Amino acid sequence: MIIIHAELKINPEQRSAFLEQARAAVAETRKEEGNISYSYYESVEEPNTFMFVEQWKDKPAVDFHSGSAHFLAFIGAIRPMLTAPFQPQVFLVPDPQQ
Q: What string of DSSP letters covers 2-25?
C-alpha cells in the first residue's frame, strides 16, 4: 500500500473556490479502482491549510491517478490559489502477507 500526504496552503480569498474543486476531485478519485481512501482535512492551527491523505493499492494506481483528467484539472485549477508550493510525502507500507 502507498500512503500520500499532500499539504496545500490556500489563499483565504480563494477558499470557496478551492473547496468546490477539492470536493469534485475527491468524488472522482474515490471512484478509481486502485484507491483505498482519499480525504482532506483543514488544520486547526493554520486556517486555509489542508492536508490530503490518500491510500493507494499500489504504484500503478498512483500513476493512473496522477495522469487522470480529473486530477490534472484539479491541479491546474488550484495552482493559482496556492500560497506555497506543495510537496507530497509518500510512504510505502509493506504488505504483511509477503
A: EEEEEEEEB-GGGHHHHHHHHHHH
CA 82 – CA 25 distance, rounded (Å)? 16
CATH architecture of 2-92: 2-Layer Sandwich (3.30)
pTM of the model: 0.90
Per the rule left: phi > 0, alpha: psi between -120 and 50, beta: everything else, 88 is beta
Residue 85 is placed in which grid cell? 508550493
CA distance 85 to 18: 15
Euclidean distance between CA atoms 80 and 33, whole angstroms? 30
C-beta of residue 6 within 8 angstroms of C-beta of residue 66: no
45-75-51 Cα angle (round to 5):
20
Give 57-79 pLDDT, tens digit per residue.
999 999 999 999 999 999 999 99
